[in-house]
Amino acid sequence: MLYAPPRVITQQGVLANGTFGIWQQGLGPFTASGVRTADGWLTTLQGTSTITISAETTIVYAPASSRSLKAIYVQGSQNSLLSQKLHDWSQCRSKYVTFRCYVNCSVASAVRIAVYDGVTRWFSPYHSGGGAWEQLYVASDLVSNSNTTLVCELWMEKSGTYYFDSADTFVSTQGAIPVATEFWESDPLYERERIYRFIQAIDVDVSFNAVANNQTHECLLVLPTQLFGGTPTISTLTAGTHTNVNTITYANTTNGQQNGVTLSLISDLPGDVIVSGETILLESYP
User: Fold this and answer.
1) Are 116 and 153 in contact (CB under 8 A)?
2) Distance between alpha carbon 209 and the CA centroid of its chain, in Å?
3) For residue 268, how many other CB atoms are within 10 A of its CB?
4) Which of 30, 31, 136, 274 could be bridged to 53 by S-S, CB 3.0 to 4.6 A?
């Protein structure tokens, strides 16, 4: 009788922009809490801590990336972190998640990485602080079958200047993957396709003729549903020229099988109402 061992199913590349090479919102500096820096990576400042994030092109972990993420961190009353919620987190249920990232720093016991499933947080050992690139590695236990999130985190717990590069994840049915497994770097075009699910800029040029003041005109900007993995937030990236506009608002809209943004204009006076040269930014981070 032949015995077939259980098949180990491993998926790479659940993490987006692990090379920290894509910065569609600019190369920094970013200093606020709750903002996106390198695409997909969110800042969370806790207590009185401060941070300055920017793209780095000199201190990188070659050859995996032409950029790294540089963080100048000042520790306050609480630790702080950068994080990415995995887009396909639901596929991690009842599986093991391995997260790895190269870190360069000169402060011992200051930086470590973690995996968080909404209930349990698994931490890696700390970087030694030896001033060289070290790969930090953390493997989760079996992720809960009822988890509602899966987050990869970069924790900073002492003041210093830190560099992050070449991060990746593996999802497996049979435990953690070996530390020495080759770094997985996706094709840049594929990576950009994944990132475009997270952010999109839309140019707005619209006009109508109002027969009275306070007249409302609505316009639906229709977008393909596959662009977004969650409900997008809307902000104004570039304020355009407003002529005879009392108020302008943007709102998420679901129209049958299509998602979009409804632009509502209210006239100030009778006559032509014009919005030109305006750009709105839609961000969706599932």
Assistant:
1) yes
2) 41
3) 17
4) 30
Helix, strand or coil for residue 115? Answer: strand
> Tens of pLDDT along 42-85?
999 989 999 999 999 999 997 657 899 999 999 998 999 999 98
Burial of 207 (0-12, 13-18, 19+ CB in 10 A): middle
Taking alpha carbons only, the member of 56, 5, 54 closest to residue 28 is 54
What pairing do the DSSP bridges indicate for beta strands 111-116 and 121-123? antiparallel
**E-assigned strands of 18-131?**
42-44, 50-56, 68-74, 80-85, 96-104, 111-116, 121-123
pTM exceeding 0.85: no
Q: What is the dihedral of CA 203, 53, 186, 14, to 10 degrees?
A: -90
114-127: pLDDT as tens digits:
999 888 899 999 99
For residues 59 and 168, give the distance between their C-alpha atoms in angstroms, rounded to a whole number. 19
Enumerate the H helices of 138-243 as residue ranges.
188-195
Tokens at 168, concatenated: 């990746």
Q: Is 91 helix (H, G, I), strand (E, B) or coil?
A: helix
Domains of the chain: 10-195 (2.60.120.260), 199-283 (2.60.40)
Within 220-275, residue ranges assigned H as helices are none
